[in-house]
Amino acid sequence: MRQVINFAVLRSVLAASTMLATPAFAQDVLQDATKPVPAESQTPAAQAAPTPDAAPATEAAPAPATPQSDIVVTGSRIISSGFTAPTPTQVLSAESIAKNAQPNVFTTVAQLPSLQGSTGATVGANGTSTGVQGLSALSLRGLQPIRTLTLIDGQRVVGANVTGVADVSLFPQLLIERVDVVTGGASASYGSDAVGGVVNFVTNTRFTGFKANLQSGISTYGDDGNYTVQAAVGKSLFNDRLHLIGSGEYSHEDGIGSAGFGVGSNPDGSGPGGRNWLVSRNLINRGITNDGGPQYLDRSFTQANNTALYGLITAGPLQGTAFDVNGNPRQFEYGSNGVPLKDANGNVLGCYNGVCEGGDRSGNVTNANSLKSTITRLSGYGRIGFDIDPDNELYTTVNVARVTTGNIPNVGSAQFGNLTLQCANPYVPTSIQEACAANGITQFRYGVDNAIFPNSISVRTEREQYRFVAGAKGKIQAFGGDWRYDAYYQHGTGITDITVRDIPLMPRYNAAIQAVRAPDGSITCANPAAVASGCVPLNIIGGQTPSAAALAYILPGNGPYQHTRQTQDVASFSVSGEPLQLPAGALSVAFGSEYRHEFYQVNADPYGNGVVTSGAYDAQYPSDPLLNPQGGNWYAGNYRDGRGAYSVYESFLEVNAPLFNSDGVGKANLNAAGRATNYSTSGTVYTWKVGATWDTPVDGIRFRGVTSRDIRAPNLSELFAAPVTSNRTGTTDPFNPGRTLTVLQTTTGNTALRPEVARNTEFGVILSRPSWAPRLNISVDYYRIKIKSAIAALDAQTQINLCFAGVTFTCNSFDISDPNNASVTVQPFNFASIFTDGFDIEASYQVPLSGIGLPGQASLRGLATHVKNFVSDRGLPNTIPIQGAGVNLGQGATPSWKVLAVQDWTTDLFSMTLQERWISAGVISNEYIVCQTNCPVSTIDHPTIDRNHLDSAFYVDISASYKFTDAVQGYVKVDNMFNKDAATVPSDITNPGLYDVVGRAFRVGMRANF
């Protein structure tokens, strides 16, 4: 990654240019250069990052005959010679992306320290209903992808998920010229969602020739095999007036599948492929707050005490009786020297809240989901541009792409002690029936992993994107100067299909397990209505494989599905020019308007969605009197129908005014922008920004600062989502200590939501190419973001806990009075706030190696982000703000430090790149009080714990390439060269957003560029 920060100074427009001006980046970014540009018009970033065989940094870098990038995101719409935007921008060049040699460019971008909380192939692999499996969505500042605006060539992209976020893996990756990451609020310039910043993928709109990339790889464990095939072609016709570009790619990653039951239970390599770092780690809640010991115990190799691989009686006088594969009774090994108390709640002495340390862990399901989803990408892209004259172009682009992912979120549809079996059930062994009689009981509570099902639950998600753009851009002479314009219309359609297989219909499952003897001695279902509708009895005691008829009844081939269609229509027009000259330089303005319409519709299967009458079921989903006509019949994946739309009208104005420009005081600019945005759902909202830069008279020193008011409008899902139900297993009941529940959680939208409002402030200092170190660049920026009226929802467990703690706001959202029918409703509201601040640090240095007798040039680059605070405030009575900085747990985790360092050696024939990735050690939660003895009273806000630590991570990657000819290059890449294990985290598989769950990975490939 040899490109340094883009300080957003734009070069003057060339007389022969047919497009808008572009920044003068390094020669590795702007290729096919033919014309020199005066050195004084270059940016410091451009001057500081030459290629190994480029001219010395003090000389002019060459420029292209025609601009290669039409739209540049620099946190500003101003296009003017010598303009320096106050918003920091980090840049990844095409060369940097190529050297990182990833199957998906998303992985390379997400490694930047300022990006935290991004999703991807390793995120969401444990989810059935989330819809984010394999979704390559970027997140700045840990504020989630919904608060990062992702663009391609400065234009919005139709959402690939009901949240409206773009899927980067659908972009034409081989044509990406660079990626600009604006690390600050940019809503006034670019509209809603740019709270954390903007990520813009700039494509090469003037590519000519042919290039291709072939790549294949595998992990050191023999899994996650992958291969990628990419090709692009470009041709200019009619005296270089007609420009035709096309690209296509196919990529497949096997992912890392489930290792089955008991994964992470033993330190013997039982994790997928032998990854023995994957252990079952839990926080054991003792439920005791005032005995001088910690309430929570951080333990590894834990297990649930209310389920077992082939079944376990979980309460009452027979508690602790488990069954082997043949259905024979045995004593369950609890671990923690656990002793079942055989009471009605199923308490176990020595174990807490359903969790023990050690014991029989063969049925563990906590870590048994896929470690990484499979992902297959197919993408096609085309662009036609026609120059009306040397200054104006008409163009159209087409992007058609599909991404298919698959994962196993659960290996067995486990039932955590929430079943009741009758002692007279003919599948109950005779010895247990006799024990029932001896103890005066007719039924018992029961938990089982359902390992009898031949296949694990699997989720297949397919995302398709159809995006069409038609536009015109260029410059015209008016009012005595050049005025640049950019007008385009975009129509995008995103289609998502989620299909779940091998998952039980719970009303049928519950009917099938209640077996009785028929008068003829055969075994049948106890419910006559179930028998009439085709019920086939199921034996869940032991490991006997169910009959084909039983499986077909409980696990119908037509599983849950969700079909989502999203459309986005955008009409945009913007103008930039210099209407007058001020004493210190030209006054620059940019203004424009945009119309956007967003629509989505979701259709789900009737078993999950529900129907008014049984006649509404179709042939694939026949009516069944056992099923709830209101839906929610599946074990998970109960999708719902829904639809919604909104329209947006907005206009913006941006001004850049040079304040002074002299040798004595330096050069300064004032940059200001405002935008009015009207949403059909919530009315008008205003955003603005004010910033300034000062090139001081001190050699190489520049200051910059900007403050802005930014917004994020509620997305279609937050507004209009129909209720979606899912089972939340392992929910604890604080009103009845020791009781765990399976809660039916219903998530729904809220049309009364308003836009979030954020205040974003950044200021920094840059040392750029001082005379005493002409190849050195260093920048340090402080950022501060405060979001008010943040849209948030509380999960089931949190709502129950808050009610128990006296927050009455949440008490009406759930009903757990009946443990067999517990339910919680989850809905978003504008009640939260988020505050985060910290520092971004970047440094780069390039030096030719001729002085030490070596060919080529060495380039060093380092980027670091330090998060000082990440405070989430629920805004509810009797709750406290939660400090998330330094917490390495959870998908949106924000470690205290995240660092990326790159050292590159490049010659005419070969290159070698070494990269280091580091995240600092963190905690499980900053609210915990760590103690072993003499602990204070543990509270909801500040619970006590015996250990509060999550490991740091340091990964080393290495790549090398060699030119066989001027046009053909071979390369190799090793990620995580020392096979550093991922950290385990409590109550979760790990945090793949921070830790490398794949391990050492090898890739080899060939590139051609003719």
From TrEMBL:
InterPro entries: Beta-barrel_TonB, Beta-barrel_TonB_sf, Plug_dom, Plug_dom_sf, TonB-dep_rcpt-like. Coiled coil: none annotated. Residues 558-976 form the TonB-dependent receptor-like beta-barrel domain. Its main location: membrane. The keyword Signal applies. It is found in: Cell outer membrane. Residues 38-67 have a biased composition (Low complexity). Keywords: Cell outer membrane, Membrane, Receptor, Signal, TonB box, Transmembrane, Transmembrane beta strand, Transport. GO terms for cellular component: cell outer membrane. The keyword Mitochondrion does not apply. Residues 85-198 form the TonB-dependent receptor plug domain. It is a multi-pass membrane protein. Residues 1-26 form the signal peptide. Residues 35-67 are annotated as: Disordered. Pfam families: Plug, TonB_dep_Rec_b-barrel. Belongs to the TonB-dependent receptor family. This is TonB-dependent receptor-like protein.
